[in-house]
Known about the structure:
About 65% of the residues lie in helices and about 0% in strands.
Amino acid sequence: DAAHEVPAASSGPIGDVLVAGLVATLAPGADAEATHRLARRLDGLIARHFDDPDFGPPAAARLAAVSVRSVHACLAREGTSFMARLTEYRLQRARQRLLSSTGARCTVAQAAAACGFRSAEHFSRRFHERFGMPPSAVLYSAVATVASPVTNTSE
């Protein structure tokens, strides 16, 4: 029926915005649910690909079968950005790696590279900003904990 056909002018970026606005107006809960589902899908992709220094919004969009604009818009609705989410995940994983290190098996540069950072210097700056201490301090505290055995003082 001609009344339900979408005019050709509504296809493309402007049409996408118009349709998204109409959907959000008519079914706001559906839009929120779709945003939540896409955000969870993006979180899963980050968890699987965080170690790839080339992983970013274009790769995530391709793997999630959505546009890069959709990736950015989805996470903006959640008050964050793709790169902020990816960086936080990488920093948390690097911190876990440093804390579980026994010293000889992991360096700061190795932890940075294993978690997708191209530069150990950049990683160190971001780590210090996030956790309030340099990654080397976390690594040394982990090594010190392993190196100093707990003594039993109850005897």
